[in-house]
Design goal:
globular, mainly alpha, disordered N terminus, 183 residues, Tetracycline Repressor, domain 2
Length: 183
Amino acid sequence: MGCGRRRASSVGERLTPRAGEIAAVARDILEKSGPTALTMRALADRLGIKAPSLYKHFPDKNAVEVELIAQMLEESAAALEAAEEREPGSLTALADAYRAYALTHPHLYCLATERPLPRAALPPGLEDRAAMPLMRVCGGDLDTARSLWAFAHGMVILEIHGRFPDDADLGAAWKRGLRAFHP
């Protein structure tokens, strides 16, 4: 979680139209079938091309995944910014937006959060943008923001992976956890 002010570039600014098309198909494969289904061969097959043609646009599968991670960070940042605009200073609104985004895009969320973040390959300022709504609601306290993110991520990832019992009241667990950060 960074804390700078540079603005990240959007997908349209960093990809050629063909690379954008490839990324869109990759995302569709990921969202529908999960990360194991996202292979260069599957991607080429869906596009109706030979796999080596993909390398004109992305050097390898990792580069495709980095693009998808960047999309996730951009979209989740936009969701948090919208929540912040609707309810300024509301930790509950941010948490609800974070959870809703992750549960709507579970495979993308997992791709972006279950391995080291490829910071050096991401657009400059993107990680910071994604963190800023949380930083603001935490009054700029980086340790509190990181702790809160860890709580939210833990709750979301456990929910995505079905680790809570069927009768668990996740709404109550979220409320209690958030109160620990903002009584």
